[in-house]
Structures are given as structure tokens and as C-alpha cells.
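Page 42, continued from yesterday. The earlier attempt failed because a stray header line got pasted into the input along with the sequence. Redoing it now with the clean sequence only.
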Amino acid sequence: MEPNNQSQQNPASFMTVTKSSLEKDSWPMRIPQFKQRIAAELHKYLVGNNCEMDIKYRLQPNAMVSPTQKGFYQVFQWPYKVMDPDYPFG
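This time it went through. C-alpha cells are written below.
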């Protein structure tokens, strides 16, 4: 008995990319002024929401553009700690 081709499907078929499915990214990340503005907005949000106090780490103004490993790690964990203080990071 031959397998029914209609019932078998390529497991990766849902990941097929066609030209029509691609859209141009509207975020102009190659423009330095845009990156600086977004970094400044993120820094303002974090400082305004007591991120520095919660993580006990001072965020330098350029930390959003060129973060240290520790700074990135701390900022990444902060939303988790706000939502679930017992979330295990390890």
C-alpha cells in the first residue's frame, strides 16, 4: 500500500518563505540618530520606573547603545523580577 501524498506534509512547510511574505522592516536601525533616540527613550523608561533601584546597578546613559555584559544581564532580568520576584535565574 502506497502512502497517501495528500495526508503527508513536510514538517517544515509552515516555515516556507515566499517573496510576498517578506516585508521591509520599518525600524531604521542603521540610522545613528534613530538608535540614539530609541536608546534614550529606553533609558528614560528604565530610570523612570525605578529599574536602577530594583537592580541596584547604575545605568549609564550609553548603556542602551553599548551595554556591558552585567548591564545587559541586569536590564534583561528586571522585567521578570517585577512580574515574578521568585523567578529562578541560574
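Notes: Residues 5 and 58 are 60 Å apart (CA to CA).
Reminder to self: strip header lines before submitting.
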